[in-house]
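Thread title: Can someone regenerate the structure for this chain?

I was given the following input by a collaborator and told the matching structure tokens would be attached. They weren't. Posting the sequence so someone can regenerate them.
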Amino acid sequence: MKYYGFNFQWMYNSHSQKAAECDERALDFMCAMGCNFVRLPLNYWFWIRNFNYDEADESVLQKIDGFLHAVISRNLHCSLNLHRAPGYCINGAELEKHNLWTDEAAQTAFINQWKAFSKRYNHYTEDQLSFDLLNEPPNIDQYGCTREIHEKLVRKTVSAIRSVSPHRPITIDGLGGGNLAMPELSDLGLTMSTRGYQPMAVTHYKASWCAETKGIAEPVYPKTLYAGKTWDIDAIRAHYEPWAALAKKGVPVHVGEFGCYDSVDNEIALRWFKDLFKVFNELGWGYALWEFKGSFGIIDHKRPNTRHEKIGSYTVDRDLYELFKDGMQI
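Best answer:
Regenerated them for you:
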């Protein structure tokens, strides 16, 4: 099954302890588009307070129950993801009490959380629910993370999940923020999740949180100069070669996130999106846009020169909507 859909951040915002309401209207819109996949990134701070890892707020877990029911009852596959996990988040890891890569307390809490989710959601089939263990692990040697430490943690976590739910599909995101493939884990029968954000000079132009693109000139595409390369469709193909090599060996690959921030002109963004979808189609990979609604979405982004049209009850970026739909190979 190839999965196509969106990321929904109903329990992700790290600045609030109040979860958003499930956007069922958006789920219905997705179904009408022909999508079949929702990635649900979670921030564990919502149900764990003050790093008391063994004291989960049941009322918040029940909220997650409701999210899953809303998604799965529409015959959409749900990928449950820890975006902020005990000891690590790609955005603000320094705010954690412990370090997932060096502290046993965080590693134990991480494994126990996934084992608890396995027990709680064991009634869902593998076609309905999968686990995406950790959003975008860091670069090698960042925060003390090495390939060996990462591999050991993944193997322990997978073993804990399968001790409860042997057939639960499990996804792992690439190292280096989702960009680095992990052949050392190809024997585990996992889906490998990559990202669609390269070149960052296009996708994160003027993104305040992105240190890599601060102060760069307004981009063009193709012929984008970034990270010592000139980016066009061939450079995008080359970027995914290590992932394509895994896929050729039978490892499922999925693009768990991709998108373009809304500071760049939409004509530039669309040229990039067109090439990206073409590469994903060539490789036979499904994908999930970050996000449905907002600065990276198909709805409510503010990129200049966007052709907005009404579809159902939403005003959408019509050209991106069509590219997204045309790329689906369900």
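DSSP finds ten helices and twelve strands in the chain.
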